[in-house]
Amino acid sequence: MKFSHRIAAQSDIPAIIDLMRLAIEENMKAYISREEIEAAKETMGMDQTLIDDGSYFLIEAELESRQVLVGCGGWGKRRTLYGGNHTKGRDDSLSDPATEAARIRAMYTHPEWTRQGIGSLLIQLSEDAARAAGFKRIALGSTVAGEPLYLAKGFKEVSRAVLRGENGSENLVVTMEKPL
Fold first, then answer.
1. pLDDT score, position 43
2. Pick the CATH number of 3-179 from 3.50.50.60, 3.30.2350.10, 3.40.630.30, 3.40.50.2000
3. What is the pTM of this model?
């Protein structure tokens, strides 16, 4: 399958949110419980700064003569490692490319399109853009579901944090990094 990509626009936000919700609900089922998925939603979702910064990619495929959204994700030049607009503890100040890492952010694949290279394409696009912006390292906060892909793409674990959701369930975030 050949995919196309483009930078997300404000008008894409409703479709992005729909894809994120579907991916969170379906793609994480094999890894964590329903309660843990609910807790994970507190640290996942739409981040407006990625759209504003022009650093969020949409991956589309042609299906029955029309373009359909099959994945989304990007990179951040801000200090926030993960999370959506609603996530507590955000730091939206800009990172210093000379001393700080860029961030892989908010990667989601439609459940019917997993294991077809969309995540790899998003990582490559994000790494290339971060490198072009002068960053020397890139970091991310991974879910358990995303960890195998990131390891395969050369990311190394830096730390693990267990967050407790409002429902009392745990949510694991694996901080990973690699040089660009």
1. 86
2. 3.40.630.30
3. 0.94
